[in-house]
Write a structure and sequence with these properties.
Layout: E1 3-8, H1 15-20, E2 23-26, E3 29-32, E4 35-38, H2 45-54, E5 60-62, H3 66-78, E6 83-88, H4 96-105, E7 113-117, H5 122-137, H6 142-154, E8 156-161, H7 166-170, H8 176-184, E9 188-194, E10 197-204, H9 207-221, E11 224-231, H10 237-243, E12 254-257, H11 260-266, E13 271-277
Parallel strand pairs: 1-2, 1-6, 6-7, 11-12
Antiparallel strand pairs: 3-4, 3-5, 8-9, 8-13, 9-10, 11-13
Helix pairs in contact: 3-4, 5-6
C-alpha cells in the first residue's frame, strides 16, 4: 500500500525536508491590508518579516479552502497513492482542520483520506507529519501510518519564548491590560501548546533567563526521539542553539524558521522548540 502525507504551511517544515519525504504542503494565506498572498508561494519567510517591519498593521492569516485540500488529495490519488493522511494545524487555533475535513468528506471515496489534528503548531505539527511520512516510506499501511502520527502527537511538547506580548495583544490572544503589565515589567513569557491551544508556561523577568529556562526544560525531557528548534529572526538564535547543543535525539535535529502563519501571532524574536520523548 502506498500512503502519502499532506500538511499545511503552519507546520513550518523546511522545504528540503518536505521534498525529501514527499510531503505535500497546502499553503495558508496571509493578508496585509487588501493584499492577500499565498504563504511560501507568493510570500517567502524573508519577505514576510520585511513587510511586517514596514507595516504598522498586524497581518492576518486565512485557512486554505476545502478545494485546495481536495485538489491535493485528488492529485495524490491520481498519481497512484492508495491513501492520504493529512496532518493539520490545531483545530482550536484555525479553520484549517475543518477545511481539510470538508475536502475529505467530499471525496468519491472518503475512506481514502484521514485527516488528523496535530493539536499543535509550527514544527510540533511538522514532526507529526514527518513521523507519518517516515512510516509511509517504510511501506506501512494506512492504519499504521495514522498510529505513528498519533503516537508522536501523544509524546510531543512544543514550547517557546516570546520576545514581546504586542502581537499576541493585537491578535486578540491576550488582553491589553496583561500586555501592558507584561511590557512594564519586561516579562518574557515562556509559552506551551497544551491540548491544541497556547498557554503561558512561566514568566521570566529577562530574555536571558527565559532562554536558559527553556533550554533546561528541553534537557530535562530527555531521552528524545525527535527535536526541532525554530526562530523568527531572533538575533540570539545561535546562542540558544549552543545551549541545547548537548541535547541528543534519536532522529537528526531539525533547525528551521517560523513562517508567516505562526509568526503573525508570535512576532519577531520568537524562539520555539518541539520535542518528542522516546517511547517508554
Amino acid at each position: 500500500m502506498t500512503v502519502r502525507i499532506v500538511t499545511d504551511s503552519a507546520s513550518d517544515l523546511p522545504q528540503e525536508m518536505a521534498e525529501a519525504l514527499d510531503i505535500v504542503v497546502v499553503p495558508l494565506h496571509v493578508r496585509f491590508g487588501a493584499d492577500e498572498l499565498v504563504d511560501r508561494h507568493q510570500l517567502s519567510v524573508a519577505e514576510f518579516w520585511a513587510r511586517c517591519a514596514a507595516s504598522a498593521d498586524l497581518p492576518e492569516t486565512a485557512a486554505p479552502s476545502p478545494g485546495a485540500f481536495k485538489s491535493a488529495f485528488d492529485d495524490l490519488l491520481a498519481e497512484g497513492a492508495d491513501g492520504v493522511v493529512c496532518v493539520t494545524l490545531s483545530a482550536k487555533l484555525s479553520a484549517t482542520n475543518e477545511a481539510a475535513s470538508q475536502a475529505a468528506r467530499a471525496m468519491d471515496d472518503p475512506a481514502a483520506v484521514t485527516v488528523l489534528d496535530s493539536f499543535s503548531v509550527t514544527m510540533g505539527q511538522g514532526l507529526v507529519a514527518v513521523a507519518a511520512a517516515e512510516a509511509a516510506a517504510d511501506g506501512a499501511s494506512m492504519g499504521s501510518v495514522v498510529d505513528a502520527a498519533e503516537s508522536t502527537r501523544e509524546r510531543l511538547t512544543v514550547c517557546g519564548v516570546i520576545d514581546s506580548l504586542e502581537n499576541l495583544r493585537r491578535g486578540g490572544r491576550i488582553g491589553g491590560a496583561a500586555a501592558a503589565l507584561g511590557t512594564l515589567l519586561s516579562i518574557k513569557p515562556v509559552i506551551e501548546v497544551r491540548g491544541g491551544v497556547v498557554e503561558q508556561e512561566s514568566r521570566q523577568r529577562t530574555r536571558a533567563k527565559s532562554l536558559r529556562y527553556l533550554a533546561q526544560k528541553v534537557r530535562s525531557a530527555a531521552p528524545l526521539e525527535r527535536l526541532a528548534v525554530v526562530n523568527a529572526q531572533a538575533p540570539d538564535f545561535n546562542e540558544f542553539l549552543r545551549m541545547v547543543d548537548d541535547v541528543r535525539s534519536t532522529k537528526p535535529v531539525v533547525v528551521g524558521e517560523i513562517g508567516p502563519v505562526i509568526g503573525t501571532h508570535a512576532g519577531p524574536g520568537t524562539i520555539g522548540v518541539a520535542w518528542v520523548r522516546e517511547r517508554r
